[in-house]
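USER:
Try writing one entry.

ASSISTANT:
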Amino acid sequence: MNSRERVLAALNHTEPDMVPVDMGSTENTTLCRLAYINLRAHLGMAPDPEPYVINRMMDSVFPAEDLLQHYAIDFRAVRPSSAYTPNNVEFEDGFIDEYAIRWQKASYYFDMVEHPLAGKPLEFLSQAAYADPAIPERKIGLREQARRLFEETDTCVTVGHIAMGPFEMSGNMRGYENFLVDLYTDPKYATALLDKNLENTIGFWETYLDEVGEYVHVVCQGDDLGTQIGPWVSPIMYRQWIKPRHKALFDFIRTKTKAKIFLHSCGSVYDLIPDLIEIGVDALSPVQVSAAKMDLPRLKHDFGKDICFWGGGVDTQNVLPNASIAELKDHVKRVIEIMAPGGGFVWVPVHNIQSDIPPEKIDAVYQTVLENRNY
């Protein structure tokens, strides 16, 4: 099998020749910039003069082609148009983005420190700043880039994380405490905000998929629904408030492409997986195994025939930072033993590899996968 056939087999819950391996298919399945730089140096590769930072807040990068080939990565991502530069307002150690969210540098990352709708009445929503998905520069070069990947490589082509999901965007715009309280005490505000955010997200997918929909195999949407101990909201509230909007979003995407639908959601989302399956999510990432109820044997047993687990390959919260290389290798082998049978699994670490992870550990886990991925 080639990479494309391998990935599609896994997504269709049949066993391919090898477990598909990911690095850089999305902004959340990759490495942070310093980890990437250090890994290249460790491998004796020439420095990447300008690492492509996908997500400024997380400092995550698209790895260069030579590194993807080194680890036999099965995916290639359609990158945002180089013709468009975000209209951010810069200040010392931070910036204000196109949604008027203020971000402040904190160690390796940027944290949200001001939410534009916090303390603002519903009437202000119509005046709130939103990134315009229809700016013509956003789509320049996308079709040719996607066509080239589709026709000139045998990899699985992904596109994604071009806009926040409606739940996550609502928390970012309003502040999570305010928005979660709105769901109980101000349903008019919550409804208007969710609907406006859904409209914005759909607008981005319309712009992108009109250009690349025929050439991509997986469409990747993020909307963080989980915390370390459980979902942000109960399954009952998810079904009332978020699920209908997720369904509308995914239904729209399916009008533009035949691609599989990938949902990124951190945290403990076990209780929501049946709902995600029902509305047509094909793959769930990052599979945060350190969160409550997210142990791999349970996930594989309960849902492995109905949804592809795209992640869980190595726990980046506890195991990768703290384990020895020998322990890491055993950990990776055990994950493959649990998750590979029957397909429905893509190996990638749980979320991004952080900047302070030693490169020899990163190399060890990827080499272990390559040595143990055969069915």
About this structure: The chain has 13 helices and 14 strands. The domain at 3-87+121-372 is CATH 3.20.20.210 (TIM Barrel). The radius of gyration is 20 Å. The chain has one domain: 3-87+121-372.
